[in-house]
Write a structure and sequence with these properties.
alpha/beta; Rossmann fold; 134 residues; 61% helix; four-stranded parallel beta sheet
């Protein structure tokens, strides 16, 4: 797997009014070498899309189409987080457990983290986890 993919990147892929050179670079990385995500990613993506529907940025047909496109990408789900490490990262860096799961995964597999979340990026830099750059 070439990259750990945070859900914040996917928002840029989904909503045309959100752009980011890091999200563009992540798409290229995912297409070329795949990505790994923590199990919480599945829920976060669907919550992102449903929230988009509720505020009129997406409709159910668009959600279904986007999910189909997303599922066609080589994205694998990791289901073996190291619980103690996730908790320690969340405590040390004042992250949510969800964000700490991305950081733990990237650190454990030695892959760069693709994120637009400032706090998660800060924690990654502090712990020596490389960030995907544009």
């Amino acid at each position: 797997m070439s990259v750990v993919l945070d859900s914040s990147i996917v928002g840029c892929w989904c909503f045309p009014d959100e752009t980011s050179s890091v999200a563009d670079a992540a798409m290229l990385e995912v297409a070329a070498g795949g990505a790994l995500v923590p199990a919480v990613w599945w829920f976060e993506i669907r919550n992102l899309l449903l929230t988009g529907e509720r505020v009129g940025r997406m409709d159910p047909i668009g959600t279904a189409g986007f999910l189909a496109d997303l599922e066609a990408l080589p994205i694998r789900t990791d289901r073996a987080p190291e619980s103690d490490v996730v908790l320690a990262l969340a405590r040390t860096h004042r992250l949510t457990i969800y964000d700490a799961a991305y950081l733990e995964l990237a650190d454990r597999i030695g892959a760069p983290l693709a994120t637009l979340d400032r706090e998660l990026a800060r924690a990654a830099r502090t712990t020596g986890v490389p960030l995907l750059a544009a």
